[in-house]
């Protein structure tokens, strides 16, 4: 009885959706071109991060080597983008990695993915509100913060005075979202803002190379002494000068934070059904938008660290303030204006996918149906919008900007790792049926008709995937994810490995042998030969490399970030196991 109950419980966790169950409810007009998708991806990717992140990362994580951090984060994003592109052409329904996980890995992993994406979108809204306030206050010469402190501080704490400012901005952004998002000319506005943004950032890059000093990439202890920083024998948080003042660890830590810079490309996948030619537009939109964004981030970070020594960057400082350092006060206002335009359109782009995601999860029965209640006339899930706005306001009040960015990076890295696992699994599965639940189909036509042998494992008899070979890949992929996670945990102790400790080196060797062996088993299995306009190359190596890089970056996050992420996940598991598992649509 106990074994049967556990078996049924396990089947509930991995039950899957069939794609046709989504098709009936989704069918918007196909009006978006490749240019529209590129503009949408760039508008959501080159947003708050490019004005806030370079200063935060360069100041106490990487110094001038932030350009290397961006390169590492950009390569990781490209790997994840390729996985997204394959699913975008294979699953031509508006969705995200939540949908892809549901039709591939199963319900529990889909819920984890969706729940992570929710906290990502909420934290992004909080970050935009906080950055918008900083930029607008800087544009007015910090008059808002000074007035609030002078008028409110005698009766209320200074912190509460700042909170009231965030409340005002949050309400303004919420109203703008409700009024503008459904307008038919939103993509025209997006293109105009993209043009303003790119012109502004091009000005920053050119001005930075004109006013910059290459010596700021070769700082020594003498420069710290001249700047009035004493006790240079133990610089501590200042690093140790040069191009890489915080060492290799600083590059990894900075790359983990910089990963947030490239997250916005996923917005393209949420508009698959609106693309005129999704099989071509989605992969091209993802690749082109990531390339443009990398060039922008790379140029802006280089210009910033050339204009201002990294140790003189202040916490919470924005990109426009760098022009005050070089004496270009008028340029500061021009860049701030472009910053405000960028943030205003950025929050619009991210509000659509979170509403779509919550609606999908409530329709699937994984979240409470009240969250899908639609406001008449606007088709807006008003309850979900209000609740998430409140959560975003609380996060904006009580968490630092870097904490919010790290939280978004953790959620996105985990979601992207699950998506890479989906690509690895689905390519080796037999052709999907058009009806019935996936778990039931596999159970009826499962591996009972076949017998697993060592020879069949290494030398499959046919060139077409079978239920048995598909299940072998499913199990092997799960083992590989576990082994790669353990390998990343061990490699995080790289100073001990470099010391030559035989125990740690033996552990690494054993893990590598197991990973290579299991990868070889997957490689020997037959792939699904269904024609696709785009496929991830070098299977199974590229998805495994994506998982490895993403997990390595996750290991660089601080304990505070993991604690905050853990609390959010505990709330999610409580909702799923008390409500979602019983009310699931496929139950």
TrEMBL record:
The chain crosses the membrane at residues 35-53, 65-87, 99-123, 163-181, 188-210, 250-270, 282-308, 328-352, 382-401, 407-426, 472-497, 503-524, 536-556, 562-581. This is Cationic amino acid transporter 3-like. Pfam families: AA_permease_2, AA_permease_C. It comes from the Eukaryota. GO terms for molecular function: amino acid transmembrane transporter activity. It comes from Panthera pardus (Leopard). PANTHER family: CATIONIC AMINO ACID TRANSPORTER C-TERMINAL DOMAIN-CONTAINING PROTEIN, INNER MEMBRANE TRANSPORTER YGJI-RELATED. The keyword Kinase does not apply. GO terms for cellular component: endomembrane system; plasma membrane. Residues 534-584 form the Cationic amino acid transporter C-terminal domain. It is a multi-pass membrane protein. Belongs to the amino acid-polyamine-organocation (APC) superfamily. Cationic amino acid transporter (CAT) (TC 2.A.3.3) family. Keywords: Amino-acid transport, Glycoprotein, Membrane, Transmembrane, Transmembrane helix, Transport. Signal peptide: none annotated. Its main location: membrane. Gene3D superfamilies: Amino acid/polyamine transporter I. The lineage of its organism: Eukaryota, Metazoa, Chordata, Craniata, Vertebrata. It is found in: Endomembrane system.
